[in-house]
Write a structure and sequence with these properties.
The longest helix is centred in the middle third of the chain and has 11 residues, at about 30-40. The chain is α+β, with helices and mostly antiparallel strands. The termini are far apart. It is built from three helices and seven strands. It has a single domain (about 5-75), classed as Beta-grasp domain (Ubiquitin-like (UB roll), Roll), CATH 3.10.20.30. About 25% of the residues lie in helices and about 30% in strands. The strands form two sheets. The protein has a five-stranded mixed beta sheet with strand order 2-1-7-4-5.
């Protein structure tokens, strides 16, 4: 992973929407990263509003800046228990 990127880890429906479990994206704001994912993977648009996000294991609320080298987990709602 390059120093100016973040790793995006996708789970369940988010993974299915982009056909990948991990993406490498340029560092920036959470909204900019998610917008780029939508641009490259239009099916993600339907999943995005239902997702929660963790940045380096901490819940993200609102639009936050993501530092290079960080990990973002994209978590759609999970069923079952």
């Amino acid at each position: 992973m390059a120093a100016t990127t973040v790793e995006i880890h996708l789970f369940a429906a988010a993974r299915a929407a982009v056909s990948a479990s991990v993406l490498s994206m340029p560092a920036g704001s959470l909204s900019a990263i998610l917008n780029q994912i939508e641009s490259e993977h239009p099916a993600f648009t339907a999943v995005r509003p239902r997702c929660s996000y963790l940045i380096d294991g901490v819940s993200a609320h609102g639009d936050v800046d993501i530092a290079s080298g960080s990990r973002v987990d994209v978590l759609p709602p999970f069923a079952g228990g």
